[in-house]
Amino acid sequence: KKLLAIAAKLPGPKPLPLVGNALLFMCNFEDLIKVIDDILNEYGDVTSFWLGPDLNIVVKDPNDLKVLLSSQKTTVKGPQYKYMADCLGGGILSGSGPCWRKHRKIATPNYGKRAIENYSDVFNKEADLLLEKFRMKPNGRQIDFYQCIVQTTSYTVCQTLMGLSKEQTMSLPYLQHIIDETPRLYDTVFARMTKWYLQLDPVFWLTSSYQQQKNFIAMMTHFSKKIVEHRMETLKTIKQYNKTDLLNTEEDSVSNTQLSVIDRFILSEELEREELLKETFTIFTSSQEASAKISSFLLLMIAYHPEAQEKLYAEIEDVIGDQDRPITEEDLKRMPYLDMVFKEILRLFPIGTLLQRTITEDIVISAGTLPAGCSLVAPIYHLHRDPRYWTRPNDFDPERFSPENVKQRIPTCYIPFSLGPMDCLGRYFGTKLVKTICVKVLREYKITSLNTYNDLRLAMAISASSLNGFHATFTPRK
Ligand code: HEM
Predict the structure, then answer these.
(1) Pick from 329, 297, 300: which is nearest to 432 by CA?
(2) Tens of pLDDT along 33-82?
(3) Can you tell me whether residue 54 is helix, strand or coil?
């Protein structure tokens, strides 16, 4: 009753009995961008809609979002995450409450700014192997390069966060299959999040997506079991007192990566077997896909914008010159234009397009009180393209992130890694991996495309996706 009374006072499309406004989202992922845009334009910065019995309140004001996402009253993921939890378990990515808190605390030491310095060698080696793959491609021909990039990020994650050797990585069961099928799994999850009829289990069970999801989960279980076996074998060789010392580090330090995230889960003895397997896969999937997508969008946009590419190349040449050596943290710090390009990519192609949280206690924002029990929706994709904060919002323009231009904006109109206690754990890892890959590729290749930015067909799912792939030609510079 309380929710109905509050919803009646909030602007938003008129709901139907039972399904609420769920029919609005019965469109394909490409059209969803416009559907949400239209709703926000019509009803404003605080809009309500019903997904069946769940009242969703979309908040697009950057100051309100800061309050909401930073609050302890929103540290429960929204009901739509259930469909992700069906595949990945209710842990670090899709879970909430004590389980999420415990898993996040156990994993955190491996993701710190300093901790990831230890991963630099692997980042560089895998980026070099990527260059070798490009060298084997026919010269002058346009290729869809996403496959090469996602292999690189996947092998990198296995040899860092998961703690495997390259040999162990290459012999993981179903690795390539999992890499290939992951986008389809996330599309199924997002389809269930947005389409009411797929939320009815008996209907979903009749679809081919259900069979695919079931097969994926079976593969994922074998894959995770093997990783856990490898780590258990290795852990037997570490002395008990060393393990305790390594586990109990509080500060962000390079030595934190002497244990992998999986080691920490095993040694904590806090996870049931099933939980451990799901969380092992979650650690893998939360990092390899996001890093691959952002790297690919960066290279693609640079192919579409030759002036930006030349500026970036000049900066890279300036810092690295002719030396054939690994890219270091110091190098990256001396590449401000790379950082601006990277940020512009995260603005245009966010990894979380819509975030949802359950509000656990009433919370006051500028527009009034959001009641406990409703869901907050943070429309990141649309916030990042709101013309009030971004001139020509759909254009690619890294200059938006020059220090002078950044000062002119409200900081929280740009939140690619989300905010607050449930923000992205992998921001330093992802940033460094993406930049290392892109610097290595851009140093060696001029990237061009037969297509233009106008040809890019975007879809909005869990993350922004390119419907026409990532096609470009890689021409050696020297
Ligand atoms: C490089 C670009 C990346 C971007 C833009 C990004 C963005 C995000 C966003 C927006 C969230 C919040 C999701 C939600 O609330 O539903 C998130 C969560 C998360 N990300 Fe990332 N991510 C990136 C890369 C990575 C990488 C490389 C890793 C791992 C190394 C990672 C690990 C995680 C984890 C574990 C969470 C869940 C945090 C929690 O709920 O406590 N991310 N990420």
Answers:
(1) 329
(2) 999 999 999 999 999 999 999 999 999 999 999 999 999 999 999 999 99
(3) strand
* Tokens of residue 98, six digits: 């004590």
| Predicted confidence (pLDDT) per residue in 89-121, tens digit | 999 999 999 999 999 999 999 999 999 999 999
Domains contained in the chain, number: 1
Total-model pTM: 0.96
Closest ligand 1 atom to residue 95 Cα is: 40
Tokens of 299: 């290279």
Q: Does residue 425 have its Cβ closer than 6 Å to ligand 1?
A: yes
Is residue 85 lining ligand 1, measured as CB closer than 6 Å? Answer: no
Say if CB 278 and CB 88 are below 8 A apart: yes
**C-alpha–C-alpha distance, residues 94 and 126, integer Å:** 29
Contact 21, 12 (CB under 8 A): yes
Any atom of ligand 1 within 6 Å of the Cβ of 102: no
Burial class (CB in 10 A: 0-12, 13-18, 19+), 269: exposed
The tokens for 406 are 């950044």
CA 159 from centre of chain:
19
Ligand 1 atom closest to 93 (CA): 37
Going by alpha carbons, the residue nearest to atom 1 of ligand 1 is 430
Distance between Cα 425 and ligand 1 center (Å): 6
Helix residue spans in 49-174 (DSSP H)? 62-70, 82-88, 97-107, 120-136, 146-159, 166-170
- DSSP letter string over 278-306? HHHHHHHHHHHHHHHHHHHHHHHHHHH-H
Instruction: Determine whether the shortest distance from the Cβ of 92 to ligand 1 is under 6 A.
Output: yes
Q: Is 418 in the pocket of ligand 1 (CB under 6 A)?
A: yes
The answer to whether the annotation marks 424 as part of a ligand binding site is yes
The CATH number given to whatever domain includes residue 6 is 1.10.630.10
d(CA 476, CA 139): 9
104 CB under 6 A from ligand 1?
Answer: yes
> Ligand 1 centre and the CA of 434: distance in Å?
14
> For all residues of the chain together, what is the average pLDDT?
95
ipTM entry: 0.96
Full residue range of the structural domain in which residue 441 is found = 2-476
pLDDT tens per residue across span 161-172: 999 999 999 999
